[in-house]
Structure formats: C-alpha cells, structure tokens
Write a structure and sequence with these properties.
Layout (H helix, E strand, L loop, with lengths): L1 H9 L11 E7 L6 H7 L3 E5 L5 E5 L9 H5 L5 H10 L4 E4 L4 E5 L3 E8 L7 E9 L5 E3 L6 E3 L11 H12 L4 E4 L2 E10 L13 E8 L4 E11 L2 E8 L15 E8 L8 H15 L20 H4 L3 H32 L5 E3 L5 E5 L3 E7 L4 E9 L1 H10 L13 E7 L12 E8 L8 E10 L2 E8 L20
C-alpha cells in the first residue's frame, strides 16, 4: 500500500510512523463523494491501491490536540506544592540488596552503606553519600523540573505580563518522560549533588531522583542504577504526583481510519482476509499449518522445513529467554537470602532523618542513636527475649498473627530496654514486620518509628520482601527459616 503511506507522510494531518499515535482501520461499504466534498477533506482523503489492484477511498481522522481536558482546565497547586509532604516527612525509604543498603531521605540525602559485624568487635560501617539535598523551601527551576534551594521572594512584588506569559509557555512545554515497562511516563526530577568524593573522578558523587506517578506509591525506590561513574539515577514511585494531571499515565486514544471499497473491489482486501483466516486457524490448531482458502484460487502450502528448522532468530530468542529465566532464578535466590539475613539478625535495618536514628536487628535488639564528631549517644529501646515475647502475646491476644491467608503484619516484642527517665521503667518496643504489596519492588523497605506512650515504641518495617515469608510464621510469630 505504497500510495497510502506516501500520502500520510507527505500530508499535514499526522505522521503514521509516530509511536504516540494509535490507529484502527475500519473497512466499510462503498462511498460516493463528489469533487467538492473531496476538496473539503483535503489531505484527509487518500486513495489506497493494493498489490492486487483493489482500490479504496480512506478518510483519515482529524488531528487532535495532545493536551487533555484535565490538563487544560487544571488550576490546582503546582507540582512543588503537591510533593511537599513527601519531602517534609520524617522517615526515609530503603532498598536492600545482597551487599549494599540504599537510604533515600526525600529531598535531603541519598546514601549507600554496608555493615559488617564480627563476634566481640564493634560493627564496621562502610558508607557513601550519593547526593545531598536541603530540607528548606524548595521550588522548581524555571528551565527544568529539578528541585533547588531558592531565596525568599517579596510576596508583594507583581509579575509583568511578559513574565506571566513566559511562565505559561514553560508550563505548556512537554514534560520529560521515562520508558517504564513499555509505557512512557513523565517524571518530576530532584537533583542531589555534593555527595562523598569519588576516587575515580575526583568530584563529589551526584544523583538524579526521578519521581513518577503510581497510585499506590509511598516513596519507595523502584529502580537504582549507576548511570555513569559516581553518578546515579533513582526511580521512585509516588501517589502524590498523581494529583497533578500532567504526571498521570496517558491513555492513548485510538483514532479510526475509515476505508470504503470502490467499484470492482471487495469489501476488504483479499490478502488481508486470507492472512486473518490463517491466523485464526493457527490459534485453534497450532500443531498443523494447513489452510482452506476462502476463494477457489489455490494457496501454496508453506514448506515444512520453515516450521521445524530453527532459524538464527529462534535461537537468539531461546537464548534470551534462558538468560531471563536464569536472572529471575538468581534474583529469587538473592531475595530469599536477604530475608533470611534480616530475620536472623545478621543484617540490621536503619532509619530516621532527625537527630535520632533508629536501628533494629531482628532477634537481637532495637535502638535509637545519634553519632557525630561531638556526640555519640545510644539508647536501647528493647532486647529480644523469647519468653517475654510469649508472655506479651498472652497478655495481648490481639497482637497474635492472623490467619495465614489474611496476614499482612507480624509483631515482635522487645523488652528490658534502657530505663526511661520519666517513668523509671525499662523501655519496650513492638517491631512490626509488614507486607508492602508492591511485588515489582521487592527491595524497597520503609522504616518508621512512633512513640504511642512515654518510652513505649512501635517500629514498623514495611517491604515486599516480607509478603511471602509472613505466612510461614506460627501462632507466636516465630519463623521457620527452612521454609
């Protein structure tokens, strides 16, 4: 159909080679148009001729604006205001991998660390800041979507008409997008620089944090990669961003191309009918390839060797599939080992963005601490004691795990922490392991610490890593790590 594609490329209505345009073709009955009606259609009217000399009159859809009604009518808060709750929250997001743990404190810092523990020795922590931000007032740079610290401005000052016009023009500019599993998604970018000096480049480490709309996103890290030497790119899921229509995933409309058979031509091209029939037959009987033509004209049966002899493309596809399965197996093994390390206490979890940080080592202790050049303070919130945990469950039956099929959280009780100055009693801490239902982000971890009553704490650890293992806990919240 060279005539069709030549007309579309040369026309002004749309470009069929653009992936952002989706079209369907409807094959309709005859349509008679006079010359005036054809002239009114302009470039939207084309005549298509198949290789069998079948001709069709095709009417192309009108070009539509890419700006949606929601975006055009939106007059709510800008994206900076929408994202403030995430940047002001007190807790961080974590991604745990087999060696490194990544800590993202939104708008403040990004670091990676590894802690080595040896019997009878102080823990050794290896850590690098991959970028630093600032928790003070943030605003969007006028030439990008990244955050930066800006000075306070005079609220009484008035913008000129030219400044307002330039601002409107920038708001209409297309947002940058990232391909996520085949979907083009706009993102909101935060640039963090001034990290730990890189030995290879001699420059501070730097990170680009890209926030994308995800209705269930809570700021967890979806993807982490080193884009170049000591420069990093982090993809973060956020439900907050979905409040702005410009950042929601776009559902591409499907435009209809209407093609009408001209005199002497079948309703649909005969070759198209033949191909569709073969596809239907193959789906119903994939072990055979034999067709019955719709017309009396014989169709040459494809040669047998084409369907039993592997081509180079087949071999490459098989190799790619085997590699994907191998990587999936390795990832599954790594996740199981990571969960085992967490539940046995050989891998501890840290959190906190204020003066006090907090840390939990399952089956050992929970604590909060502060460490800098002037101060090195540690307060233990509780230690693991199996007997006291069982007594706590007996006294508080509502804390026992629910039935396995309904279970989303398991609670562990840590007692006999440091004495509280206010109550004169030992501190206690309930550690809640919670399933974060986002199976595509198995390494994302969120920690948060609360103090519902004086010197009695609740430390919540949420991750998709726990979704499978929680069902294996017994009625006392004890785990069988052999499962």
């Amino acid at each position: 159909m060279q005539n069709l594609y030549g007309s579309l490329v040369n026309g002004n209505s749309f470009d069929p080679l653009m992936d952002s345009n989706l079209f369907s073709v409807s094959w309709l009955g005859p349509l008679d148009l006079n010359q005036d009606e054809i002239s009114d259609l302009g470039d939207r009217h084309v005549v298509v001729t198949t290789n069998k000399k079948e001709t069709y009159q095709c009417i192309l859809p009108e070009a539509k604006s890419k700006t949606t009604d929601d975006e055009a009518s939106y007059d709510g808060p800008d994206v900076d205001e929408i994202m403030k709750p995430l940047f002001n929250q007190p807790h961080c997001s974590y991604r745990i991998e087999s060696y490194w743990t990544y800590e993202l404190c939104h708008g403040k810092s990004l670091k990676q660390y590894h802690e080595t523990r040896e019997q009878g020795a102080k823990p050794k922590v290896q850590e690098y800041f991959l970028g630093l931000g600032n928790s003070r007032t943030v605003a969007k740079d006028e030439t990008s979507t990244s955050l930066k610290v800006v000075p306070e401005v005079d609220v009484n000052s008035k913008e000129t008409d030219q400044q307002l016009s330039e601002k409107d023009e920038k708001l209409r500019s297309p947002l940058p997008v990232r391909d996520i599993e085949g979907v083009q998604l706009p993102y909101f970018e935060v640039v963090m620089d001034g990290g730990t000096r890189c030995d290879l480049t001699g420059k501070p480490r730097k990170s680009r944090v890209l926030y994308i709309c995800q209705p269930e996103g809570r700021g967890e890290i979806y993807e982490f990669k080193e884009s170049s030497t000591c420069e990093y790119e982090v993809l973060v899921l956020s439900a907050l961003l979905c409040k702005h229509p410009s950042y929601r995933p776009k559902t591409q409309p499907v435009s209809e191309i209407r093609c009408h058979a001209m005199v002497g031509s079948p309703l649909r091209p005969s070759e198209l009918s033949r191909v569709e029939y073969e596809v239907r037959h193959l789906k119903s009987a994939p072990q055979y390839y034999k067709t019955t033509p719709e017309t009396e004209q014989p169709i040459e049966e494809p040669r047998q060797q084409n369907f039993f002899k592997k081509t180079k493309a087949d071999e490459e596809a098989a190799a790619a599939k085997a590699q994907e399965e191998h990587q999936s197996m390795l990832s599954s093994h790594t996740d199981k080992q990571t969960v085992r390390n967490i539940l046995t206490g050989s891998q501890c979890l840290r959190g906190g963005t204020g003066w006090w940080k907090h840390e939990v080592c399952i089956g050992r202790f929970a604590k909060q601490f502060h460490k800098d050049k002037q101060v090195d303070a540690t307060i233990y919130l509780g230690y693991w004691n199996k007997e006291k945990h069982l007594q706590w469950l007996q006294d508080n039956p509502s804390k026992r795990p629910k039935a396995a099929q309904d279970r989303k959280v398991v609670s562990l009780f840590y007692s006999d922490g440091d004495v509280c100055d206010i109550t004169g009693k030992s501190r206690t801490c309930e550690v809640r392991l919670k399933c974060l239902q986002n199976i595509k982000n198995t390494h994302a971890v969120i920690l948060s610490l609360s103090e519902p009553s004086t010197c009695q704490y609740v430390l919540t650890v949420e991750s998709a890593l726990f979704c499978d293992v929680l069902k294996h806990a017994d009625e006392n919240a004890m785990f069988n790590l052999e499962v």
